[in-house]
Amino acid sequence: MNQLEQLQKFSTIVADTGDIASIRRLKPQDATTNPSLILKAASQPEYEHIISQGLDSARRQPDARSRLQDAVEAIAVGFGVEILQCIPGLVSTEVDARLSFDLRATVEQARRVIRRYEQAGIGRERVLVKIASTWEGTQAARLLEQEGIHCNLTLLFSFAQAQACAEAGITLISPFVGRILDWYKKSTGQDYSADTDPGVLSVKRIYDYYKVCSYQTVVMAASFRNTGEIEALAGCDKLTISPALLDALSANHSTLLRTLTPATPDSSAKLPELTEAAFRWQMNEDAMATEKLAEGIRLFSADLRTLEGKIESML
User: Fold this and answer.
1) What is the pLDDT of residues 162-195, one digit of tens each?
2) Residues 6+ apart with CB under 8 A from 285
3) Strand partners, 153
4) Which of 9, 27, 40, 130 is catalytic?
5) For the chain, which residues score pLDDT lower than 70?
6) Is residue 295 packed enough to be buried (19+ CB in 10 Å), middle (13-18) or exposed (0-12)?
7) H or E stretch including 93?
8) pLDDT one-digit tens code per residue, 9-25
9) How far apart are CA 136 and CA 211, in angstroms?
């Protein structure tokens, strides 16, 4: 077996792409999207029908602002609906990153996204709403989970973010690996092996804590820079991987061993529940997490504005 086939014995494989052709070819269980991936896919002619349907939906709105918002949401869901025709599992659709510090607006957009999927005949059980793991995002997701809207908390770089998500009863988190490595390489000037990779070690700590405390939140490691990081996290609940790295794993027939296994539950290991003040203080003390969370929100926001500019010109 190649390494991808071996990995599938230990972890659920998720395709980190909005490119439907790649999803059909790779046949993952689940798929994740974000504004950057949709922006890239939206420029390809084979997806013109998704864009056209989104524009047709938006033109029924009464004013320019409503039309733009409607089009963006309709296109994001349109990609999700088509992706779900190609996979047996779940798709993640992201809310506007500019709402990352607005609990109420995040909840309202998440509800609209789920209504769109349901109107397209897709049950909410097949959709994860992606939300940045700010304090406001985590608390918005807490409310949504209570309504049966399942969430994927993204841009997660710290243990404090992971702890807050578990305590909020979130369905799934996406701790980032490669972006943590990027920060440490730039900060220290050092190179890291898979065994010392700060992003890998962060996910291992979160995974071990969740299992020993019997939290049900799924850990889906994301943002990989190389296959060594993936190999070092074999056994993580889920791994969301770009098509290029999925192809690299498929081409490698070396033996791949499981590295993460659930710890024996121990209720005494559970930490006191995080307050908002404690969460914000722990984030303040973690320069890497603070910087990468802010940067990630800015990057997703910039790509969304670019996508909006393209849509606006077509409207």
Assistant:
1) 999 999 999 999 999 999 999 999 999 999 999 9
2) none
3) 131, 173
4) 130
5) none
6) middle
7) strand 91-94
8) 999 999 998 888 899 99
9) 25
CA 204 to chain centre: 18
| Token reading at 242 | 């770009």
Q: Name the H helices within the chain.
A: 3-7, 20-26, 35-42, 48-58, 64-84, 103-119, 135-146, 159-167, 178-188, 198-212, 227-232, 243-250, 276-285, 287-314
DSSP code, position 202: H
Left if phi > 0, otherwise alpha if psi is -120 to 50, otherwise beta: which for 197?
beta
Q: Has 9 been annotated as catalytic?
A: no
CA distance 29 to 27: 7
Query: b or e along 87-97 (b: 16 or more beta carbons within 10 Å of the residue's beta carbon)?
Result: beebbbbbbbb
- Are 32 and 258 a contacting pair, CB within 8 Å? no
pTM above 0.90, yes or no: yes
pLDDT number for residue 136:
98
SS3 state of residue 151: strand
pLDDT reported for residue 18: 80
Question: Which residue type is seen at 177?
Answer: V
Q: Say what angle helices 178-188 and 198-212 make with each other, to 10 degrees.
A: 130
